Amino acid sequence: MNYKEYADYFSLPDIFEENFESDALGSAILHTSVIDNNPSLEGISIALIGLTETRSSKTEPGFFTDPDIIRKRLFHLKNHHQKVAIADLGNLKNGKTVSDTYSAIAIICAELIRIQILPVIIGGTQDSTFGQYCAYKQLAQIINIANVDFQFDLGESTNEINSRSFVGKIILEQPNYLFNYSHIGHQLYFVGEDAVEKMKKLFFDTYRLGQVRADIIDTEPVLRNSDLLTFDLSAIRQADCPGTTDPSPNGLSAEESCQIMFYAGLSEKITSVGLYEFKPDNDRNFQTANLLAQMIWYFIEGFSKRKNEMPAYNRNGFLKYIVTLSEMTNEIVFLKSPRTDRWWMEIPIVDNYTKFQRHHIVPCSYKDYQMAMNNEMPERWWQTFKKLS
């Protein structure tokens, strides 16, 4: 990516006028004024993109948000990840229309993903996930989406896209490049029965807040199976994260949110991240800004520990376990990494092997293997099998 070709898309953050300690992230992050002299972004692994687009907010269209408030906290955190080269591209300018902003997000993210730089979008409303998704559409890549949110955001198909309907728009978009959608942390009193049934009919994965909090580790295979992560900060409880558009007394804790971001960083499959719905006017003592900064820090921490384990492309070194269930004609093939103790399941494909090559080896947990050994069908296996058959 030649940054100078895209420089007009961005405005410069003021944060780089500050001085940072030598061991702080801000001293290591390549910022816009330096990028101008290094337009190729060679060697960069992660690119930060600020976003101020809020015109399609369902709760308060056009509310104020400022990614620089988050940067001020993030860049002063200590840098323990010297091998992860990070660039800050600045704040993406809003388009003449919201659709223009989506298009700009898609263009920038597609180019970054193409050259293996992972964009992390900070700020704005969650409908900008549609722009993230359209980046993969430009790349003609079939993907899995993970959404951390307190509700489903399906909306009405006849309405214009907004921060509470973008998932429905992605599902209906044609041609469609969505293979699987996983929803993490929804609170059932915010979700209608029709929406629950629609998710079931589409064979999408949903994990209620109680499930997530009972076993946060179970989110790791979900994120390991995802290409795009979108995170609505309103999924975090108000006591820990007041500066959101929909603060609520229940939700994920600060620690759980950081754990999810760490797992996302570990995932070799995730190639774009969006952290949305930051509303500074609701914040207290910069608590939300500090939490967001720490969530990004944990994502970088996870990214620094990626092991490049992708059994869909290379199974060398993996241990293979075959389990036969009594009422099933297909065997379940499990793969285990002796390096990381992580597990995957192989799902048989009848047609279009090349099209679905990335999706028939499904990350799972040791619990899934134990279920199969107890003659129980793992839900992850069955959900994927139904999509492929």
Give the helices and strands, then pairings.
Blueprint (H helix, E strand, L loop, with lengths): L2 H4 L3 E2 L13 H4 L3 H4 L10 E6 L15 H8 L11 E7 L5 H17 L3 E5 L6 H10 L4 E6 L17 H7 L5 E9 L6 H9 L3 E4 H6 L4 H6 L3 E5 L21 H13 L5 E5 L10 H17 L15 E6 L6 E6 L6 E4 L14 E4 L1 H8 L5 H10 L1
Parallel strand pairs: 2-3, 2-4, 4-9, 5-6, 5-8, 6-7, 8-9
Antiparallel strand pairs: 1-3, 10-11, 11-12, 12-13
Helix pairs in contact: 4-12, 5-6, 11-12
Question: How does this model look, in words?
Answer:
The protein is α/β, with parallel strands linked by helices and 389 residues long. Helices cover 32% and strands 18% of the residues. It has 14 helices and 13 strands. The strands form 2 sheets. It has a 9-stranded mixed sheet with strand order 1-3-2-4-9-8-5-6-7, sandwiched between helices. A hairpin with a 6-residue loop joins strand 11 (331-336) and strand 12 (343-346). The radius of gyration is 20 Å and the shape is globular. The relative contact order is 0.11. The model has no long low-confidence stretch (mean pLDDT 93).
